[in-house]
Design goal:
It is a single chain. By secondary structure, this protein is α+β, with helices and mostly antiparallel strands. 42% of the residues lie in helices and 14% in strands. The protein contains 15 helices and twelve strands. The chain has helices at residues 44-51, 61-67, 85-110, 117-133, 135-141, 150-168, 173-185, 195-198, 206-213, 215-225, 231-239, 260-275, 286-295, 303-313, 390-395; strands spanning 4-5, 8-12, 21-25, 39-40, 56-60, 79-81, 321-324, 329-334, 344-349, 355-362, 377-381, 402-405. The strands form two sheets. A seven-stranded mixed β-sheet has the order 6-12-10-9-8-7-11, with no helix packed on it. A five-stranded antiparallel β-sheet has the order 1-2-5-3-4. Helix 7 (173-185) crosses helix 11 (231-239) and helix 11 packs across helix 12 (260-275).
């Protein structure tokens, strides 16, 4: 926010309120819906329209004082949107469209129909664009999981996480599209596994496990029979359960024969599988999953890819819940690249695990809690452990709202 000059105050569009008088838009786009610069904001829709065309506006302070009471100043309670709020809905729409497409593709495969390779490639291309534009939002969306849609959602998440890791490894646009396609299609062979085995709530019998493991062979065959499929995706579908030491399946291949994309997808596939709820097991917290990946470095996973994956998503990635040193519960909404142990957190529950009015807490500011002790992260927890439904947060528009800032 800028200081007042001659009765005019320059503010960011996310500080706009109903009743304000905008005297001028800063660098509006050519398709501005407003015929005149002076605008009295009468509804939240007016605010959204302004936010869509510029970043800053100029407020008529005299009008504001006369007609609308207090104006925002440096002494009023600070309020902010989340860093990705402005682009969240558009990015989420791309994520949703691709998720719906992979469900359609899997249904086609299950019923023996041909699927549209070109549609899959187009969807992956859009995901690559959104990962490059809004990686934080895409990472957050991979954390909103639905056990009932595990296979399709897992494929979508592996696609996004593969692109994110490829970005960290400085892949070209062409290779980002290829690895995204590999990630999206790596588990299509599961559509040929009988549902009573695929969705069995308990442990699989040995013969059932043998059938389940054949999904790699089924996936290879499905992709080989489709036209214009990237050949590397066939290898990934067939080999993503192989290990560097030759202890995986179905062929016991070792690191010398596994492709780069296979090694990469194996890392993110394992991470998302470990952290997701499935019919037969509960997902594990983020840090525990990273520990499993680190333990498998060199024997099961390519060490550099594990290291770069951790660099990519961080110790506290968006969408994870944490219990703070105060006992309060918060949702990580922004990483701190300068200090990865001090992210921005949306406080959502008090120390008794009761819902509160959400506030943004920036751990890098070293703010003290109610007892006078400095805030810190105690542990990463699962949403289910504190009754939090991330899907409902998404549906309720929590990621695009404005929040008060702690301290």
């Amino acid at each position: 926010m800028a200081d007042k000059e001659d009765g005019i105050l320059r503010i960011h569009v996310y500080e706009l309120r109903v009743g304000m008088c905008v005297s001028r838009l800063e660098a509006p786009t050519a398709d501005s819906p407003f015929l005149l610069d002076r605008i009295v904001i009468e509804s939240h829709a007016d605010i959204q329209a302004i936010q869509a065309i510029c970043d800053y506006v100029y407020i008529d302070v005299k009008y504001q004082k006369s007609f609308s009471g207090a104006i925002p100043t440096r002494n009023t309670e600070a309020r902010k949107h989340l860093s990705f709020a402005r682009s969240f809905n558009q990015t989420a729409n791309t994520f949703q469209r691709t998720g719906n497409l992979i469900k359609t593709v899997m249904d086609d495969i299950r019923f023996g129909n041909q699927f549209s390779v070109s549609a899959v490639k187009q969807a992956v291309s859009e995901c690559v664009d959104k990962v490059l534009e809004n990686p934080d939002t895409m990472l957050l969306l991979t954390q909103i999981k639905d056990q009932d849609q595990y296979t399709a959602q897992h494929s979508m998440n592996v696609c996004i996480l593969s692109i994110l890791l490829g970005r960290e490894l400085n892949f070209s646009m062409e290779d980002l599209n290829k690895v995204g396609f590999c990630g999206l299609m790596h588990d299509v062979g599961k559509m040929k596994v009988p549902l009573e085995i695929l969705n069995k709530p308990g442990s699989l019998e040995d013969y059932e496990m043998d059938i389940m493991r054949k999904h790699t062979l089924y996936g290879r065959n499905v992709l080989m029979s489709a036209r214009n499929v990237y050949p590397g995706a066939v290898d990934v579908a067939y080999d993503h359960h192989e290990h560097l030491a030759g202890t995986g399946y179905p062929r016991g291949l070792n690191k010398t024969t596994l492709s780069i994309f296979t090694k990469l997808v194996a890392v993110v596939d394992t991470y998302d599988a470990i952290t997701s709820d499935r019919v037969y097991q509960r997902g594990k917290p983020h840090l525990m999953a990273l520990g499993i990946l680190v333990k498998g470095m060199g024997q099961q996973f390519e060490a550099n890819y594990v290291t770069q994956f951790i660099n990519c998503i961080g110790f506290y990635p968006q969408g994870n819940l944490v219990e703070l040193s105060s006992g309060e519960i918060g949702l990580i909404v922004e990483q701190n690249k300068a200090d990865r142990l001090k992210p921005k957190i949306l406080l959502i529950q008090d120390s008794n695990k009761n819902p509160i009015e959400e506030k943004i807490l920036d751990l890098s500011l070293n703010i003290a809690d109610a007892s006078g002790k400095r805030y810190g992260v105690k542990q990463v927890i699962r949403p289910q452990d504190c009754g939090v439904d991330l899907a409902k947060y998404y549906q309720d528009g929590k990621f695009t709202k404005e929040y008060a800032v702690v301290g």
